Amino acid sequence: MGVVERLSRLDRRYIFLAVAIAVTLPIFFPIGLPIEVTAPVKQLYDVIEDLPERAVVLISIDYDPSGAPELQPATLAILRHCFKRNLRVLVLGMWAPGVPLGMKALEEIAENEFHRQYGIDYVNFGYRPGGAIFLINLGRDVHDVCRTDVYGTPVEDLPMMDDVHSASDIALVISMSMGVPGSDQWIWYYHARYRGKLATAQTAIGAPRYYPYLQTGQLIGLIGGMKGAAEYERLVQTRGLATIGMDSQSAAHMLIIGFVILGNFIFWMQKRKR
Amino acid sequence: MLMTSGPWVWIAAMLTLAIYSFLYKDNPFYKIAEYIFVGISAGYWAIFLWWNYAYPNLFEPLAKGNYLNIIPIGLGLMMFTQLFRRTAWLVRFPLTFVLGVSLGLQIVAAVEGDMVPQLRGTFSPFSRGVLFGTADFWTSIGYIVLLVGVLSTLIYFFFSKEHKGFLGAGARIGIYFLMIAFGASFGYTVMARISLLFGRLHFLFSDWLHVIK
Amino acid sequence: MRLQIPLTIILVMGIFTLVTSFIPAKPIADVNQMFRNWYIGIITFFIFLGTFNLARSNAEKIKKQGRDWQYSIILLAFLGIMLFFGFYRGRASTEEGQPFMYLYFNVQFPLESTMYSLLAFFVTSASFRAFRARNKEALCLLLAAVVIMLGRVPVGTAIWKGFPTVTEWIMNYPNAAAKRGIRLGIDLGLISMALRMILGIERSYMQ
């Protein structure tokens, strides 16, 4: 059996091993290649920069643990930016398994890093079911669909919510999304009715679908996957998990491109032989 | 503190390794982890749904005298009638209510939130003074590509007439646009999966083994 | 009664929601808001039903000692543990520092994220075995994928500074064009299906 034949029958476990090595090595030996910031990420950053102090930013945690490696770093970076700019943050989510991730992000950034006060500078309404239908009601009457926060506190007892009643009181919505319900619903059901500024952070799988909405202005910014999060980390000058992950990402991409070329070379050789 | 160290990290690490053991071959450790995942996720959803919505929005107000809540609760409980053959047809009441509301809104959303702005976005760059005017060279080329791409993709999916002549040419161009989009999606999918793997490996090396900071 | 009432409900609710979506006047908008709140209330029971069904089917599997029934015991045990720790201190059960949260972060979180990360291995294996330039269309797909993979990581920029710009252009125009075309097609399909269901022409969901 020739080399080409043997390669074509390569046990896939060797490929698995190669992937594991490609992702692991840069964790121990980082290269630290510079991260280029793309326009859709910069646009969101600029919008947050231009918001007036104490404006309300709604962050919708529409992801679960499987989206966390990509979206949690983006959530942290955005929260950091919001609190640095002295904005108020309203967190909620349409995915139940995302609630603790939102709590953890707020604990890390709002409480520990910026020492902001719960109920005054930020609130967390936790999981809100209903998807699209919930969003329509939210835009019309926030208090009606968010009667208690994630800890069971009535909305009337949260001073921050005194002047947040409807979509017009929310300066910017950022949907951190990995599927349905998520950014689609925010665009079609919320933005179409109430307008305002809407941006999204997507897992890389979802990101390509949202470029049409950037062009129409329905979205004012797009953070795509871990790379997008790394770009935002660069903009807010922090070295988070996304930035650290970029070297592994680079190595793995090169490996996969190598496998694509090798696979096609084998295919071409076998075709020529026939 | 939400994240912990000690035995909990060991549990998390062992479960991570149990899942990865599938890469060698299917085995009981993987199966155990898989079933734990299903059980724990189902419990999690039910609990969060109860404490975050059902209790404060449905049952608590009902207890305080908002008797109108009997309607959604009653319709919701009707869902359980499908467990018995004789009463299974009752499930049609909540189902049609939910479908009616969501379908009506879906039509509005598809037109108002998607079709109109998307079509406007395709054609608006062709208004006077935009192409090669306010838009630079590559953006202008992009707008032309966008229009050709949208139309040819739509032609490709138009099956009411045979793809011959103009339609045939349009459909062929459409295929290339679709291929580029699928290629882009594949590239992004690779990105996503590698990110997840990095996340898990980083956890194993930092939180569990402490070999990196 | 078994057919006519449900068909009337979907017709009335569908038409009412559709038409009144454009009426922001208070009494009608308030009624709409109430219906939508009812909708959310009802769908919460869908998930309760799903949980109940999961428990029931696994209990039956154990009873009948069906294939892999031993694993169903584990599933039920963890479902029970989660429900117990979710209720045992009332609403406070889901707060920080509670067993419920420890179980989430140290059992559910690693399991879910690891499960999906397995696909990193399979996608690489598929790239090697199935990603072949068999014809011009496939070559086009392959080239787009390679450019995007390079344009979206720092090493791509190190190889050629133009990769991010080219990638961004591809994403903004050819990619957006195809995605928009697909989406418009889906929208047309959704609208026609929604109308068929509201008008009672499509009834398969009732079976």
General description of the model:
The complex is a heterotrimer of chains A (274), B (213) and C (207). Chain A contains 11 helices and 6 strands. Chain A has a 6-stranded parallel beta sheet with strand order 3-2-1-4-5-6, with helices on both faces. In chain A, β4, α8 and β5 form a beta-alpha-beta unit. In chain A, α4 packs parallel to α10 and α10 packs antiparallel against α11. The longest helix of chain A has 33 residues. The model of chain A has no long low-confidence stretch (mean pLDDT 96). Among the domains of chain B are: 59 residues, no CATH class; 87 residues, no CATH class. Helices cover 75% and strands 0% of the residues of chain B. In chain B, α1 packs antiparallel against α7. In chain B, 45% of the residues are buried. With 207 residues, chain C is mainly alpha-helical. Chain C is extended, with a radius of gyration of 26 Å. Chains in contact: A-B, A-C, B-C. The interface between A and C is large, with 63 and 58 residues.
Structural class of chain C: mainly alpha
**Annotation, overall tally of beta strands of chain B:** 0
Mean pLDDT of chain C: 94
Question: Main sheet of chain B, how many strands, which sense, barrel?
Answer: none
Write the layout of secondary structure elements.
The complex is a heterotrimer of chains A (about 270), B (about 210) and C (about 210).
Chain A: H1 3-8, H2 12-28, H3 39-50, E1 56-62, H4 68-84, E2 88-93, H5 99-113, E3 122-127, H6 131-140, H7 142-145, E4 172-177, H8 183-194, E5 197-202, H9 211-216, E6 222-224, H10 225-235, H11 241-273
Parallel strand pairs in A: 1-2, 1-4, 2-3, 4-5, 5-6
Helix pairs in contact in A: 2-11, 4-5, 4-10, 6-8, 10-11
Chain B: H1 7-20, H2 28-63, H3 70-78, H4 92-123, H5 130-134, H6 137-156, H7 165-208
Chain C: H1 4-20, H2 26-64, H3 69-87, H4 99-129, H5 136-151, H6 154-159, H7 163-198
Please describe the structure with a list of short key phrases separated by commas or semicolons.
heterotrimer, A: 274 residues, alpha/beta, Rossmann fold, 6-stranded parallel sheet, 11 helices, 52% helix, elongated, C: 207 residues, mainly alpha, 7 helices, 79% helix
Task: State the gist of this model.
The complex is a heterotrimer of chains A (about 270), B (about 210) and C (about 210). By secondary structure, chain A is an alpha/beta fold.
